[in-house]
Write a structure and sequence with these properties.
- The complex is a heterodimer.
- By secondary structure, chain A is an alpha+beta fold.
- Chain A contains 26 helices and 26 strands.
- Chain A has a 7-stranded mixed sheet.
- The N and C termini of chain A lie far apart (55 Å).
- Chain B is α/β, with parallel strands linked by helices.
- Chain B is built from 6 helices and 11 strands.
- In chain B, strands 2-1-3-4-11-10-9-6-7 form a 9-stranded mixed sheet, sandwiched between helices.
- In chain B, a hairpin with a 5-residue loop joins β10 and β11.
- Classes of the chains: A alpha+beta, B alpha/beta.
- Chains A and B meet through α8 and α10 of A and α1 and β6 of B.
Chain lengths: 742, 237
């Protein structure tokens, strides 16, 4: 077969990239080699349109033990000879087509990134975005994604402890499925994704390779269109049982001391793992592809190279110790086979039955080596002007604010997500302290120590849409705020950058500015970006999704007794609102859903004020001055107060600030505000210690909800509305669908 | 006495059970590999635990493959000799599949996996054995469930026998102890959450007491259940 620029273009390489490949090889590549470049130079693997800007983020320092991008996931020191390993990753494109398997394999993939480094995953989170919940398509995607996450995570045996879900029409065709895993590793037991030592055996372990997931990396590097369904074979199929065995076997094999390096096979399968491990170690590999365990007959060379069959690892062992390594995998009934060896010429030579089928320098394939890096142009999107035209003076304050509160507390993005999280095993592992004592971030214990970890994911994409720079700062700030509210010290960030097509200058403007805001906020909170993933092309013929730079953040509690919870503790405690109180409605759920204003500025936010607030809050918690802390986020103050009351069926009697619009006070989403409660005997200490603006807004009641002197019923009523909203929604819609079918 | 916790491929609550027994209840406990055929270190004074999880990926049917694991031959003999055997969740499913306990565990009524705190109460004579703590409704325990196939079912004759012999250990109830349809998380017949065999040395339950054994997790109700169930010399009959 003759290889031309047309072949390259069919493999989603550009004409220029094809020329570059020819130049680097000094010849025209054969089809197998071209496939290798196509996968490795895809956006998904090469970060070619993002790396320039990613490098501007704070990517080392503090407690980081490896620099960002060096390994499969971030690794930070938490003392006591332990490290925390964490990462978030997208599985948006496969989930759009096949929500169950797409989401399931997203969970599997992110856990592999953690245990390939020698860490045992102890907590999982997920950040999801869907279209409007009343659409049949959304319900299909939601049910499939939730089932997929549960199916994989529950069987694998790592608790799903937190996450977030938003519903917005911009995600109708392009749902976002971002999965995060957090693990713990002992110092000295980490494994690097590197290949070293000429003659060392290269060992393939895990599930046999099939034809599933071929081309997944390049599929994830294109827009979703009506033709995308034909890419269904690019979606992988997951087997959590295999992965559970793989986890135990990998952690056990590390104990032998015979492992030189290990990397999971995710995107772009064998070609990616061989290339990245070799390039990192400055070596090459000779691989005999017929030795790869397969589950289908007669797989072609390029299929073997690109298959994204799940639950597989590539491992380099010390020469002569193959038997020890293979014995561990045999114990766990997992295939393991020596498929090649490390060489010293930097070439990846793939043989099939003795015949050389592809020969490529490893270095030329990878990010930081030969993979191209682009400088994309960007321009300010036209819609930003429309935002500035918003005038809150045109919005009348509704007469019946209780009715507004009822509408807001049942919005799918705000209401309880129990229909979803009850399908996830949140308690396996016996580390999740948030089941019985909820806090803004999930808090898990680190067994064998007094320590705990706070973990959270956050991003309000409407804010980022309205102001990419400030919106990304808010995402980082909210994550840090949730940790601080839980008594944790923010340590570091992993990010999942979900954007539209980077070749659209307006989309790229959002990307560039979000990175700038994220970098500023991360520097302010001293939370370096340890790694993550970029997902472009979340776009369809109707346009891109809102820019959604999801922040996964991990914080440390030196002593789990420092944990702070969000729920009201006793009747009579004073309720204070910490932080400035601007008269602000910007980008709120209230403005969007009650008044139908789709374009308004991002909510009030100042980074310095946010930082001061978090410092003050941390001090109040460590001094044990306050009895509860819950930050004000989507839905505003009313939702925050209601959520604080639910756990112990306590209510609140509050008076909003006289100078504020009543709707802004109750439902505005101005940032850097936290509701705290203080027992009577601590009130004086509280008012003396607090060095940021605060106001006493009311007291905790035995159950009555009283707002500005009006009786708004009992907390039980609000809890019922909040808890059942999504279930009522789904029942109504499926009943309507059933009727429609008659 | 000492405990052995069997580790099947796909078990994922084995470590939780080991930790709870060792650290929260200060018991001697060892993991037992499913391929082992030697449990001679265990006497009928001891207890073997089948933990929760997804043994063999729950393929075919929950517990249906695990019961053919080499160690199960020994566990069945151990139970028949009067040794205590205790199964939680997937362990309960394995005990039913292996015939050590009657009945079966079907897919949850609502066809969904469910994980949350629920309430159970001890039943019949067994209730006496659980020493009640002051201030709580008598015999109601908050314990988590986490399963997709936990709906206990037994045919009418078996059910009658279970009742007649006092083999029902726990039923689902609400926080005040009332057995209601809403408090039944999976549609189990007669709200049954756990049972024993007629000889009272083999126990199975769907809820996970090992997940409710420590102050740091904010729930220690599980300790009482493990203590009374496993460490009493002989269950009251």
């Amino acid at each position: 077969m003759e290889i031309t620029v047309k072949t390259a273009e069919q493999l989603r390489l550009t004409k220029e990239e094809f020329e570059l490949i020819k130049e680097k090889l000094g010849r025209t590549p054969n089809f197998n080699e071209l496939c290798a470049f196509s996968a490795m130079w895809s956006e998904h693997c090469s970060y070619k349109n993002s790396i320039k800007w990613l490098k501007t983020l704070p990517r080392d320092g503090g407690r980081m033990l490896v620099a960002a991008g060096e390994e499969n996931a971030g690794l930070m020191d938490i003392g006591d000879g332990l490290g925390v390993v964490f990462k978030i990753e997208s599985h948006n494109h496969p989930s759009a087509l096949e929500p169950f398997q797409g989401a399931a394999t997203g969970v599997g993939g992110i856990h592999r990134d953690i245990f390939t480094m020698g860490a045992r995953p102890i907590a999982a989170l997920n950040s999801l975005r869907f279209g409007k919940l009343n659409e049949a398509k959304t319900q299909h995607l939601l049910a499939g994604v939730v089932h997929g996450i549960g199916h994989y995570g529950n069987c694998f045996g790592v608790p799903t402890v937190g996450g977030e879900i938003y519903f917005d029409p911009c995600y109708h065709t392009n749902p976002l499925v971002n999965a995060m895993s957090v693990g713990i590793v002992k110092a000295g037991e980490t494994v690097s994704a590197t290949a070293e030592g000429t003659g060392n055996p290269v060992i393939f372990v895990g599930s046999a390779t099939g034809k599933d997931g071929i081309g997944g990396a390049s599929f994830a590097s294109a827009d979703i269109t009506s033709e995308s369904v034909q890419e269904l074979p690019a979606v992988q199929v997951g087997d959590p049982f295999q992965e559970k065995k793989l986890l135990e076997a990998c952690l056990e094999v590390i104990q032998t001391g015979a492992v030189v390096g290990m990397q999971d096979m995710g995107a772009a399968g064998i070609i990616c793992s061989t290339a990245e491990m070799s390039a990192k170690g400055g070596v090459g590999m000779r691989i005999d592809l017929e030795k790869v365990p397969t589950r289908q007959k007669d797989m072609k060379v390029w299929e073997l190279l690109l298959s994204e069959s799940q639950e597989r690892m590539l491992l380099v062992a010390q020469k002569g110790r193959e038997a020890e390594v293979i014995a561990v995998f045999e114990k766990w009934d997992l295939p393991a086979a020596v498929i090649g060896e490390v060489t010293d010429d930097g070439l990846l030579d793939f043989y099939m039955h003795g015949q050389l089928e592809a020969s490529v320098p490893a270095e030329e394939l990878v990010l930081g080596g030969g993979a191209p890096q682009y400088d994309r142009e960007y321009k300010e999107p036209a819609y930003l002007q429309a935002l500035n035209a918003f005038d809150s003076g045109t919005i009348a304050v509704p007469a019946d604010l209780k009715a507004v509160a009822e509408q807001i507390i049942t919005l799918p993005s705000i209401a309880s997500k129990r229909w979803i999280y009850n399908q996830y095993d949140s308690m396996v592992g016996t580390v999740n302290t948030s089941t019985n004592a909820p806090s803004d971030a999930a808090v898990v214990t680190i067994k064998g120590t007094k320590k705990g970890l706070g973990v959270t994911t956050d991003c309000n994409s409407r804010y980022v849409y309205a102001d990419p720079c400030r919106g990304a700062m808010i995402a980082v700030s909210e994550a840090a705020r949730n940790l601080v509210c839980s008594g944790a010290l923010p340590l570091g960030v992993t990010n999942c950058l979900n954007f539209g097509n980077p070749y659209d200058p307006e989309v790229y403007y959002q990307f560039v500015n979000a990175i700038k805001g994220m970098g500023d906020a991360c520097r302010k909170f001293d939370t370096p970006v340890t790694g993550g993933n970029v997902s472009f092309y979340n776009q369809n013929p109707d346009g891109p999704v809102n820019p959604t730079p999801t922040i996964g953040m991990v914080g440390l509690l030196e002593d789990i007794d420092q944990k702070m919870t969000l729920d009201f503790k006793q009747e009579g405690d004073a309720i204070y609102l910490l932080g400035k109180q601007p008269d602000d409605l910007g980008s709120s759920e209230y403005l969007y859903h009650v008044h139908g204003v789709t374009h308004s500025p991002a909510p009030y936010f100042e980074l310095e004020e946010e930082f001061a607030l978090q410092q003050a809050l941390a001090k109040l918690i460590s001094n044990k001055t306050i009895s509860a802390a819950h930050d004000v986020s989507e839905g505003g103050l009313f939702v925050t107060l209601a959520e604080s009351g639910f756990n112990r069926d306590l209510g609140f009697n509050v008076q909003t600030h006289a100078a504020l619009r009543k709707d802004a006070a109750l439902f505005g989403e101005a940032q850097s505000r936290v509701v705290v409660t203080v027992a009577a005997e601590k009130a004086a200490a509280f008012e003396q210690e607090t060095d940021v603006p605060f106001e006493k807004i009311g007291t905790v009641t035995s159950g009555a909800v009283v707002v500005n002197g009006e009786d708004w019923g009992g907390i039980g009523y609000w809890k019922d509305q909040y808890d059942t909203a999504i279930e009522v929604y789904l029942a109504k819609e499926s009943a309507a669908e059933a009727m429609g079918g008659l | 006495m000492k405990f052995g916790v069997v580790v099947f491929p796909g078990s994922n609550c084995d470590r939780d059970m080991l930790d709870a027994l060792q650290y929260d209840l200060n018991q001697e406990v060892v993991p037992l590999w499913h391929k082992s055929e030697d449990i001679s270190a265990f006497t009928t004074e001891d207890c073997i635990v089948l933990p929760g999880g997804f043994s063999y990926g729950d393929y075919l049917r929950c517990g249906a493959i695990a019961r053919f694991s080499p160690i199960m031959k020994q566990v069945i003999a151990f139970a028949n000799d009067g040794g205590k055997v205790y199964g939680v969740c997937n362990g309960f499913q394995i005990l039913c599949e292996s015939g050590l306990l009657p009945g079966a565990l079907l897919r949850n009524e609502r066809q969904q996996y469910i994980c949350k705190n629920i309430f159970i109460k001890a039943e019949g004579s067994y209730k006496e054995q659980l020493k009640e703590d002051a201030g709580r409704f008598q015999g109601v325990y908050k314990i988590p469930v986490a399963h997709g196939e936990g709906r206990f079912y037994a045919d009418p004759a078996t059910l009658e026998a279970l009742k007649a012999n006092g083999q029902i250990l726990f039923r689902y109830c609400d926080a005040t102890g009332k057995e209601t349809p809403e408090s039944n998380p999976n549609g189990a017949i007669d709200n049954i959450a756990g049972i024993s065999n007629a000889q009272r040395n083999v126990f199975g339950m769907m809820p996970h007491p090992e997940r409710a054994c420590s102050a740091v997790l904010g729930n220690e109700d599980g300790k009482k259940i493990l203590t009374s169930l496993l460490m009493a010399r002989q269950l009251v009959s």
